[in-house]
Amino acid sequence: MSHDDLEHAGFKDRTRVAEALETVREAVSGHDRTERVALGRADGRTLAERVVAPAPVPGYDRAAMDGYAVRAEDTFGATGRSPTVLRESEGAVAPGEAVRVHTGSDLPEGADAVVMIEETERVGDDVEVFDAVAEGENVGEVGEDVAEGAELYEPGHRIRPSDLGLLKSVGVDQVTVYEPPTVGVVPTGEELVQRDPGPGEVIETNGLTVSRMVDRWGGVASYRNVVDDDPNAIRAAIERDLAKDVVVTTGGSSVGERDYTPEVVDELGEVLVHGVALKPGHPVALGVVEDTPVIMLPGYPVACIINAVQFLRPVMKLAGNMPVPSHPTIEARLDRKISSEPGTRTFARVRLREADGERVAEPTRASGSGVLSSVALADGWVVVPEEREGYDAGETVAVENWEWSA
Description:
Layout (H helix, E strand, L loop, with lengths): L2 H7 L7 H9 L8 E5 L12 E2 L9 E2 L3 E4 L13 E6 L7 E5 L11 E4 L3 E4 L2 E4 L9 E2 L10 E3 L7 H9 L4 E5 L3 E6 L4 E2 L8 E2 L2 H11 L3 E4 L7 H10 L5 E5 L10 H8 L1 E5 L3 E2 L5 E5 L2 E6 L3 H19 L9 E6 L3 E2 L5 E11 L2 E6 L9 H4 L3 E5 L5 E2 L4 E5 L6
Helix pairs in contact: 2-7, 4-7, 5-6
């Protein structure tokens, strides 16, 4: 469809969010670039190979309590009124002997149990034992925590700080991870300037915001200079970044007089979706050029952010072989009605406060797609699904923390 035809047609049919996402996901394939990194650099990275424990944890039988290492059979019959008396010694434990141990220390040869220190009393060179122990009691055996050869993690696992501790404990000091996905961020619009706007000019914010979101999500963003509303300039900018895993443009995605980006992408490759049933931000377009996903975000700041979260985030993570976790939510009571158009997924920005011991969600007064403060000063958004006409005041809603970095 030509640019004039698109402008005339508008968005009579809008693709539902789930369908749009599934369509673009089918066009995304994960890259195969990997690297070996030290554990200190692995936090948040995605494993590319399975990790198997090369050594057991613990690697030796160890005392699980402060006390005395003994032969369990030597303590049988010991009670508070009739203690068993053992000789205190050092080194290996012989019959009738006890050796002082501390939590985590090596279990001496000959011992098979530990009596807790509070169940003993030292009398000269002897130790009185007031409680019998069974074989293996208060002892951490070899491999009790992790067995040698145990499968710890599969490819695709995102490494957490607790994982780093476990990996180090089994003797792993390097892991093979996928390289971060690369994203070319191309802001478009001849009215955009970086500072000191004059009449008719606007400070560029979308490219900066999106590039930092990409970095938070685990990608590597290349924040490009502003491209004018010119088909040739837009074409050159997209072609320059086709070596990236994903290309994302901001602005020029609708069907207006200067919205050339979807037309250019369709000439270079294919526009898969143009116009999605979400609010604010329906003029988003999703395409692919030479196997590279191209996400065309609207120019209004709020619409840009919402669509970046809904489409750029999962596409970028899939391209980088990364898991796509859901955003955390907080339940709150809605203090004012949220209206929504049936068949459209609505993202209502809210602020959270405490009132009478409960959490309350207050929709922001300014809610237009161009009001950046409605997002920047909010605590999250409430997603109204397509099948609802909104939420009434007093309903309990889930507030999504979309700025969560994972």
